[in-house]
Amino acid sequence: MLHSISWLESIPDLWLQIGIVVLVLGVVVLLAETIYRRVSANSELVRKVVHISTGNIILLAWWLKLPTWVGIWASVIAGAIALLSFYIPFLPGINSVGRKSLGTFFYAISIGILIAWFWPTQHYQYAAIGILVMTWGDGLAALIGQKFGQHTYEVWGIKKSWEGSLTMALTSYFVSSLILFGVQGNIWQTWLIPVAIALVATGLEAFSKLGIDNLTVPLGSAAIAFYLSQHLT
């Protein structure tokens, strides 16, 4: 009985937390659609606004300690919207990549998988590493590669640049080391493990056919971070 009362008393706070997350996501989508219509319908900037802004929601979810089921259902709903928009572009801003890509769909699904994987055991940092490596690494790599990429290579018919890949590696290292430093402090593993994360993330990001890197990079980065942290610390 006491357990039931405690659960009932927690409902208002839970819905407030969910409301905050929904509000932030709504602002992101609105911003993306505004940029899409007023700046450029083909601008990479639009996709990266969604990409980077949405990814940082994982920090908000971590801070609020949202229940696992909330994260999973949010991922399913976001994935369904992204997939529907891919075939019926009622939200063209979230899929404005200039090529046929399911990246936004894979991105949403990867968040749900990582939350289902790490939230129940309270290993929030690994979910955050997976998502934020993709969020900032891939986001900045695409922008830097398009603007400054002079030395190109091709994987699965997708053109990449060494400048973009270097950006991916450096950003992945910085993001993952920052998270690990915040969780486990200034120990040698904090600075070594991100080297492996950066190499794995950069390698996976090169294979981006249909936007599959939005799934493989988060899962691969989180997996290597978790594995090495468990065996080296």
From TrEMBL:
| InterPro entries, alphabetized | Dgk1-like (IPR037997)
One GO MF term on file is:
ATP-dependent diacylglycerol kinase activity
- Keywords noted in UniProt: Membrane, Transmembrane, Transmembrane helix
Keyword Cytoplasm applies: no
Q: Which residues cross the membrane?
A: 14-33, 45-64, 70-90, 102-120, 126-145, 166-185, 191-208
User: Which PANTHER family does the record match to this protein?
Assistant: CTP-DEPENDENT DIACYLGLYCEROL KINASE 1
Q: What is the protein name given in its UniProt record?
A: SEC59/DGK1/VTE5 family protein
Q: What is the lineage of its organism?
A: Bacteria, Bacillati, Cyanobacteriota, Cyanophyceae, Oscillatoriophycideae
